[in-house]
Amino acid sequence: MPGKYFGSPFGHRRSQCILLWAMPKSLTGSTKPLARRPFHYQCAGGDSEEITTLMTFQHPRNQQFSARVLYYTNPPRQKNVIRKDPMPTIAIPSCDETIMQDLPLLMLYPSFCCWNPAQMHLPLSGVLKNVSKQQQQLSYNQRYMYGVIHKLGQLQDPYCFTGFVRCSLYYTQEQRELTKNFPPLAEKVQLNESVQLSSYMDYLKTQLKTKHNKITLQTEKLMYHLLSKDNYCIYSETLKYLLENNLCCINDIYEVIEQPVDYVLKDYVQDMTANRQRAEDGINQGKQTSDDNLVTKSSSEKEFFKLMVNSGFGKMLQSDDKYNKSLLIHSPESFMKQTIGRTITDWSIMRHADKQHKGLIEVRLQKDKCNMKSAKHVGSAILSWSKVLMLDFVYNCLYQHYEKTEVDLLYTDTDSIYMQVKASSYEEFKQRFPDYLQKLHFAAAGDITPGKMKLECELKEAIFVKPKTYSYVKKDGKEDVRNKGVVLSQNKEILIFDSYKRAVFSDDLIMAKNTLIRKTIHNDTLTMNTMTVDKAALDGWYDKRIMIDNIHTVPFGLYSKQFTEEDVMNRIMKNLASRVNIGIGQLKAYLQCTQDQLKTHLASQFYSGMSLMNYGVLWNLDHTIPVSFAKDNLKALCHYSNIQPMLVTENSSKCADLGLPKGM
């Protein structure tokens, strides 16, 4: 279906005429499940202590202390938009939560080493920078991460490190332009009023408030952006891939947890995948022989084995700390006794009190202690590999053989990507790729090999409004809608494809109704009634990216200024002046040195791991002789020789205002 191509290759929110691809879900790899055994804590100096639980270390003197777990979550669904010209679009699912077959994961119960910057014997940030630059000089199929992703056997890791890293990352302007359609990393961000939005977003915000009295709230959101990321936790293999492919740059490393990797649950996943493949073959055989019983049986088996793998992943990322303790309280005395000193998170009346003040309420309390049973480091690594495989498909397959004017990424989900491609058919789309790339990235018909893409269906028209809120029309004319938080079966006449169009192109606010069943107990009598809740189901507002108009969006940070060491020094000068309540000009006179000389002075006193770029995160400024000791002699105390860098943890425990000592 050829057609003209118009518009900017920005990330879009809505699209017409879409081919949808899907990738099989069961791809979680690992070795046989390991028997639970105590951790072995290996500190940088070589001393070891046995860990009695997943989160608590036991010292020989029976002193307990907690381990800090570093991990990061799945990026949210990325929103994209529509084309007005008839042109085929393809949607390809990424690796799903369980795409870990034959990819190395952190071991379930490994020995691990936790470093802080003062304990780092090797400059890990320098190793990552140097090795990744060497890898960039090689052709793509000779790089280390290419071999890991595509399972080229046992490889020697040139980085000599695996685990989790807490670091600061940034993007050059060239990297921002490259990754603006599909940013590689997500982060929770709360946009305040100082963040500059587009003129269209200001207009839409006013329209929604004027026409529908809807106020857009600035809340914390998980979003893809291209702003610098400080104090960011990331899986080592993801970081290696990003650096090797020049998708981001690293400033400094603050803390690491080193853990060995292995093929966790590999045998189990391979067995489940083989069972799913047999079920898929049974479905095809049943369709050919018109055996409905075989089709039904095989379909059930296929879904069962898929859920067997996915449920394991879900438990790995289970938030044990978010579960509350529930109590049933019958009297005021029992309430006071059981809740004293505890944090009440919620409560509900199950039976109202009688004249003797006897009733029944459910009280939910925050846990005092939490036993972290889930292997979050493994679940986090799985999600990281999922993102890596999708990035690899987009940047080293798709964009290598299609210009950005020929393909647009419209919307991504955990296991899918909708894209618009300048091609008349799926076969024509695949012809651009060499045979070896087709074998690496695309599954054959009826094949459910984990990690490979397949064509799922073709769409004629679609509108993507925001994450998990979209509608599309299939090639056969059937409509489908998705709307998070709305009961679709109760709003079939309201949530139709045209409603999504009106929300986007006419600035309409579409309301829906959710009917819920409410149960109450009064005087030992159970009462059930329905309750209808009005909910704003659809509107055109979206603030996880900058809306250029009602179609095009770009990520926050695309055109922001790159953070430099000069910016840090300007911030340091400003903070020094405000600390003693003087102006910048007066501070420069008191310092008796230039800004560059102050920079050299501070750098000469840095501990291992300190740098200008982690000022405010790892270290702060400290006056050797506190200013409060001799406020009358401010000029002498502001001299550059009295200023030193100090670790945040050390500085926060130091009492700054000690009063004037005797004899001073």
UniProtKB/TrEMBL annotation:
> A single Gene Ontology molecular function, please?
nucleic acid binding
Q: What is this protein called?
A: Uncharacterized protein
